[in-house]
Amino acid sequence: MKLLLILLSLLFFSGCGDSTSASSEDASMETVSSSSALSEKSSSSSKTSVDSIHLPDGIYSSSSLALDSAWEALKPDVQYDEFKDVRDGQVYKTIDIEVDGGVQTWMAQNLNYAYEDGTQSWCANGTMYDTTLVGNCKLYGRIYTFASLAQGICPEGFHLPSEDEFSLLCKTFADSVDAGGWTFYGAAASLMADVEWNFPSEILNTTGFSVLPAGSRRTTSFTYGKRASFWTSTEQDNYRAYDFVFAVEWSQVDDEIVYSPAVWKSNEKRDAALSVRCIKD
């Protein structure tokens, strides 16, 4: 009987050892595979916006804070004012920002005025793979086509910023600007919200401008969580208008992937739907 118990014990511990070894080996193989895939994608470009590569599932999802409204993304130690949009009773926070040569008063959250819902504006919070998700207007505001902006989409006393007005904001906080005035190096860290962007980057939001990754809409696809794009009133031609894009870029330094916030001027097709930040008259 004693001999039988010993044999059974040996068989039990042998089985557990094999299982542990197999699990460790599988986990190791999975880690190596994931690292190799990321390294392979990274080697194709030394620096690019993160939405041009496919990173592991979940990296674009909203933060674990699960914010309910744009007010929760504001900077606690910044002084905000507020006003009510008489068209629908919504209350918005505003922020005075000192720029080169004066002060600009901006809405500190994205416009959320419902205009031609489903045809000219949508609640932001879709994904480029699933357009059936319910948007979160309360947190990200709405995204609008350029055609809708002609209706004077901003509340009374505010207007859609021009290219020059948005450029001035970005230039003020930039370490440098490229020769063409398209890229504002170092400015994004002061203008982007320090929540919701799920990347280990140095976002400070010192201005309280609090840009969130609301995404955009092109035809029927959304790009929630990867970037934020804002219309200006300045048209490039009959097909495009200027906008400003906030995103997180990555670069490869030796074997390490480094993430950093970025903002640049772009030119978007008029049928795209982007966010709107209004500026005071």
Tell me what you see in this structure.
- This protein is of the alpha+beta class and 281 residues long.
- The chain folds into 2 domains: 1-44; 47-280, no CATH class.
- Helix content is 22%, strand content 28%.
- It has 5 helices and 16 strands.
- It has helices spanning 2-42, 137-140, 146-149, 163-172, 188-191, and strands spanning 47-49, 81-84, 91-99, 102-107, 121-123, 142-145, 158-159, 176-177, 184-185, 217-218, 221-222, 227-235, 240-253, 256-269, 273-274, 279-280.
What descriptive keywords fit this protein?
281 residues; three-stranded antiparallel sheet; disordered N terminus
Number of domains: 2
Which H/E pattern describes the elements?
HEEEEEHEHEHEEHEEEEEEE
Given helix and strand content, the structural type is alpha+beta
Report, as a whole number of angstroms, the end-to-end distance: 93 Å
How many strands, which pairing sense, and closed or not: the largest β-sheet?
A: 4 strands, antiparallel
How many helices in DSSP terms? 5
Helix content: 10-25%
Rg from Cα: 24 Å
Extract low-pLDDT stretches: 1-65, 126-130
Average pLDDT works out at 76
Number of strands: 16
Measured by DSSP, the beta-strand proportion falls in: 25-35%
Q: What would the principal axes of the Cα set say about the shape?
A: globular
Question: What would a concise description of this structure say?
Answer:
The protein is of the alpha+beta class and 281 residues long. The chain is built from five helices and 16 strands.
